[in-house]
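Example 3.2
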Amino acid sequence: MEPLAGSLILKGKTNMKAWLSLTKAEIKISFRNKEALVFSYIIPLVVLGIVRIFNSERLPVFSGVLFTFLLVTAFFGMTDWIVILRSSHLFRRIERLAPPRLAVWGAFFVSRLVIIAAQVILLLILGILLYGFKGPEHCMGILSAALFASIPLILLGILLAGPANEKSVRPICGMSVLAGIFLSGAYFHQPLAIVASVGRCLPFAPLLKLVNEGFSLTVLSTAQWLNVVAWIAILAILNIVSFYKTFYKK
C-alpha cells in the first residue's frame, strides 16, 4: 500500500504543478492580448462612466452593465479565446507535452476567473467613485456574486468553443450575448410573456439578481438556486464529455 500511496501523492503533485504552470502561462498570454484588454477593461469603464452621467439610478444600472460585461468576458471572451488559440495550433503543442486532462481545462477556467476578478474590481472602484458604493462588505458581495455568476458563463463559453470556428465564433457569440442580456431582464422591466417563460428555464435572470443584490443564500428562491446549480452541473458534465473536441479540434 505504501508504494501505491507514494505514487498517488507524486502524481497529485505532478498534476498540480502542470495546472499551475498552464494557468500562469494562460494568464500571461491573455493579458498580452490588446483586443481582449480593451473589451474586458477599457470599454466597461467607459460605458459605466457614460451611463452614470445620463441615468440617476445607481445599483440597478451598475449591476446591469456589470452583468453585460460578464457575458462578454466570461462567455464570449472564453469562446473566442479558445478558438483563436486552437487556430494557432497552441493546443496541439500542449497535447504533445501530455499534461493531465483536468489541468488543461482547469487552467483555462481559473485564468478566466482571474481576468474577470480584475475586471470587476476595476468596475467596483468606479462604483465607489461615481455610484456611491460604501463599505467593503457591499463591494465584496458584488465581487463574490459576479465570480459565482461567471461559473456557468465560462462553462458555456468553453462548451460552445467546440463547434465554433474562426468565421462563426463572433456572430454566434454576439447573438448569444444579446439573447442573454435580453432574457436576464437587465434593461427590460416588463419583458414579453414568452420571453419571461423562456427566461425562467435559463439561469440569466437569477444570476443578474445575485449580482444586483450581492451574493447571499437568501437572495434567490429555492427554485432559482436549483435552476442555477442544475445548469452548472449540466454544463460541467458537457464540458468533460466534449473536452478534446473543444481544445484539440483539428
